[in-house]
Amino acid sequence: MTQTGPMTAMSKEMQDCVQACMSCHAVCEETMSSCMQMGGAPSMQIMRALMDCSEMTRMCADMMMRRSPMSAEMCAMCAKACDMCAEACMSMPDDPQMMRCAEACRRTAEMCRAMSGATM
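RESULT FIELD:
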């Protein structure tokens, strides 16, 4: 497979954003698992927010890595999903895993918001 022209190097900001998305994805997955182990019925609102955020961060990272022309819009949507997830996790302030997740979501939302305004 031949490449038509060299791939432009990803900016430091984009690399950092990809990393943040990947680690946020992982934390959301861990948090879903933790929710299910808690027993009782984990709040559907929290589970939904975790699922949305997990999927969006993974897809957002993938799209940035392949330089999709839709990356900027994806970053904007991803920031929104991360904000909603952070909000949902904050409803359980006594749970350290939820707080770790909220923190990862907040950081990722911030970076994605910055990327959504940047030209890819």
